[in-house]
Amino acid sequence: MASWFGLASETLEAFASANTMLEPDPSAVRCWPHHFNIATYVFLETGNPETARGVGVGMSPGDEGYGERYFYINGWPHLDASKLPDAIAPGIGIPPDMSDQSPLRPKF
Fold first, then answer.
1. Could you report the per-residue pLDDT of 1-10, keeping only the tens digit for each?
2. CB neighbours of 68 closer than 8 A, spacing ≥ 6?
3. Burial class (CB in 10 A: 0-12, 13-18, 19+), 90
4. CA 94 to CA 40: how far, in whole Å?
5. How buried is 74 (Cβ within 10 angstroms: 0-12 exposed, 13-18 middle, 19+ buried)?
6. Does residue 74 contact residue 56 with C-beta atoms inside 8 Å?
7. Which residues contact 57 (CB under 8 A, 6 or more apart)?
8. pTM for the full model?
9. CA count, 13 A, side-chain hemisphere, 60
């Protein structure tokens, strides 16, 4: 598990560093205690954090909706999954009602 968190940390730090030109810039990479996932969050616009568009990028060690480790990209507000194209292999699509994570989650 430590190697997965190490890989995720390294990858997410590189992602955040490559996108510092965004306003506001990506959040610090951190372990979120409510899901024990490691992630960064990028606001795509300023304003109320509850309604402002943004993207979470991270890695989960698994959860009640999907028991294996996975990397994810999670748009906010949530997108209508029925209007998205099918996931590109090796990705898989997860209906939003099965989890609060992204409708597109690669399986490794």
1. 899 999 999 9
2. 62, 107, 108
3. exposed
4. 21
5. buried
6. yes
7. 12, 15, 39, 40, 41, 42, 72, 73, 74
8. 0.72
9. 21
